[in-house]
TrEMBL record:
Domain of life: Bacteria
InterPro entries, per the entry: 6-hairpin_glycosidase_sf (IPR008928), 6hp_glycosidase-like_sf (IPR012341), GH15-like (IPR011613), Trehalase-like_N (IPR045582)
Higher taxonomy: Bacteria, Pseudomonadati, Bacteroidota, Flavobacteriia, Flavobacteriales
Organism, as annotated: Aggregatimonas sangjinii
MF terms (GO), sorted A to Z: hydrolase activity, hydrolyzing O-glycosyl compounds
GH15-like domain boundaries: 217-582
GO terms (BP aspect): carbohydrate metabolic process
Protein name per the record: Glycoside hydrolase family 15 protein
Pfam families xrefs: Glyco_hydro_15, TREH_N
């Protein structure tokens, strides 16, 4: 497979990736960051998968059931046809809460003729470190490994269990199912019960999606992106993952391969801001609770990232027995970046706290805790904003005075002032206003480079950086300010490559980046739109949307030459920025229609 042509299914506890041909090639259970059961994505030979094998005469098409996370793969040779409806159960329990078991269900729907298929069922537990043995029992098929760690995995099915394990051909005459679960079932599943689970899960997603507003343009793209962001949220704690995978490379054959199954404060806060704007209040509320639970001590500095169960230590290891995606080693689990200092996270978090208090000031939980966090953030920023850091792109070498970090320190204080006014806590305002002005002036004095006529990546440098485009959206500078307009133009000239953006072009710890960071292109499109180049922005946007995979999903990066998707997948960052752009274009069209109606 040349592209990341996968669909994601999930239930806000874990997720799985199904290939364009209907093969299950990535799944970690019982939770997102657990070790893999299927990891063919990271090693073609030993990773493990659940493949569906049909004759070459079959045409295979894939789509999502509209407004849901149920993935439908259609197999037909003209006369014989069937569908697989893949999902992970999620629905409301009668007594309250949600049923989200650590299970993948593959429901086979008979359509016509006498379709035949084989199954290549090959779970490889614990990242395929040791041998996984599979046994046929009376009620299920069990797989187990006794390597470094003991683990088991269960398959329940309406099909012949021996035929499955032996890879024999089977004929489909009626609906059937495969239920893949981390736990042994108390009650044996039946096709009827599994169909009920499918319908309940479908209804859950339809109900959830109905809360997303309808827009004039790009409605299906906004809906699919919103569902994808929801799929990357972890219901138990409120954490939001950066992506569902580990070690998918930014460039094939290189070493920029990271584990993204964690909660970055920056990424998650940006996601929550957008999902909150779409009206999904509970996701935002749970995330704020996640933050409140992370900060028990008033002087405790935030890490840039945490485990989904609030783990603070995310030790990075390499799995040297796995060959990596398309041979791109190393495969990593854990992420050493948790130790880094990045000063921008405080501003991004304060922005979300302000948004939630602004939107729901009469209906906000944890108001007192959030005020405590606000005061703590300003205290930390006032003491540390003059220090260098690793920046948004997590340079692993020396610290610098990154412009984006400084702008977000300003955002932290600016939003804290606004929060203080909402909560009518005016005692600290005078002091905070002085600090806010000091930071703002410092940025104007040091980040602007008259020679390149732009705000640059860091103080004293000539290098340009796409993150600086966010100065406007965070309210630091007006869109039509000549300094901002010339910064957008300079970034376009220097960092755009056939409409796709480099994050930056100066060498980092691993040399010159050779793929486009998808979110940066969305930021650039948004900036063009804001400075008045709306037609050009929309043309770029439509072109960028055409680079998504067959289901409208984006990863972290896009290859400049081939336009193939690269990096971890699906990427929360990319989808939140897609939604922001789409809403801007849609709102603009609505405004123009209103003006046209008034003129008439």
């Amino acid at each position: 497979m040349d592209n990341l042509d996968y669909g994601i299914i999930g239930n806000c506890r874990s997720a799985a990736l199904i290939s364009k041909r209907g093969n299950l090639e990535w799944c970690c259970l019982p939770e997102f960051d657990s070790s893999s059961v299927f990891a063919k994505l990271l090693d073609d030979k030993i990773g493990g998968s659940f493949d569906i094998v049909v004759d070459e005469g079959y045409t295979i098409k894939q789509r999502y059931k509209k407004h849901t996370a149920v993935l439908i793969t259609h197999f037909s040779d003209g006369e014989n046809s069937f569908e697989i409806r893949d999902f992970m159960p999620r629905y409301r329990k009668e007594g309250g809460g949600y049923n989200s078991p650590p299970e993948v269900v593959r429901y086979f729907k008979y359509i016509s003729g006498k379709p035949k298929f084989k199954v290549n069922y090959n779970p490889r537990l614990e990242y395929a470190k040791g041998k996984t043995k599979t046994y046929v029992k009376k009620n299920f098929v069990v797989s187990l490994t006794k390597g470094e760690k003991f683990d088991t995995f269960f398959l329940y099915t309406s099909f012949n269990k021996n035929a499955i394990v032996e890879g024999r051909e089977m004929e489909l005459n009626d609906d059937g199912y495969f239920l893949l679960g981390y736990n042994e079932k108390i009650f044996k599943p039946t096709t009827r019960k599994v169909y009920t689970e499918l319908e309940r899960t479908k209804v859950y997603w339809l109900n959830w999606s109905s809360k997303t507003p309808t827009y004039k343009k790009y409605n299906s793209e906004i809906s699919r992106s919103a569902i994808t962001l929801k799929l990357l949220s972890y219901d138990k704690t409120g954490a939001v993952l950066a992506a569902a995978t580990t070690s998918l490379p930014e460039t094939i054959g290189e070493v920029r391969n990271w584990d993204y199954r964690f909660c970055w404060i920056r990424d998650a806060s940006m996601v929550i801001k957008v999902v909150g704007q779409l009206g999904h209040k509970n996701v935002a509320r749970r995330y704020l609770q996640f933050i409140v639970d992370l900060i028990p001590d008033k002087d405790e500095k935030l890490q840039i990232m945490y485990g989904i169960n609030r783990e603070k230590k995310l030790t990075e290891k390499t799995l040297d027995h796995l060959s990596g995606y398309k041979g791109s080693k190393p495969v990593r689990v854990g992420n050493a970046a948790y130790k880094q200092k990045q000063n921008d996270i405080y501003g991004i978090l304060m922005d979300v706290i302000h948004q939630q208090l602004h939107e729901y000031s009469n209906d906000i939980e944890n108001g007192e805790e959030l005020w405590g966090i606000t005061k703590g953030i300003v205290w930390i920023v006032s003491n540390h904003w003059k220090e260098a850091d690793k920046g948004i792109w997590e340079f692993r070498a020396e610290d610098r005075h990154f412009t984006f970090s400084k702008v977000l320190c300003w955002v932290a204080v600016d939003r804290a002032i606004k929060v203080a006014r909402i909560l009518r806590k005016t005692r600290k305002l005078e002091k905070w206003i002085v600090l806010e002005q000091e930071i703002k002036q410092d940025i104007h004095d040091n980040a602007w480079n008259a020679e390149v006529n732009a705000f640059t990546q860091s103080y004293g440098s000539k290098d340009l950086d796409a993150s600086v485009l966010l100065m406007e959206s965070y309210g630091f500078i007006p869109a039509r300010d000549p300094k901002y307009v010339s910064t957008v133009k300079a970034i376009e000239k220097e960092l755009s490559n056939d409409g796709l953006l480099y994050r930056y072009k100066n060498e980092d710890d691993f040399g010159l980046p050779s793929s486009s960071f998808t979110i940066c292109t969305f930021w650039f499109i948004n900036s063009l739109f804001k400075i008045g180049e709306e037609k050009k922005a929309m043309k770029h946007f439509d072109k960028l949307l055409s680079y998504s995979n067959h289901l409208g999903l984006f990863s972290e990066d896009i290859d400049f030459k081939t336009k193939r998707l690269l990096g971890n997948f699906p990427q929360a960052y990319s989808h939140l920025a897609l939604i922001e752009c789409a809403i801007n274009f849609s709102n603009k069209e609505t405004e123009e229609q209103i003006l046209d109606a008034i003129r008439e």
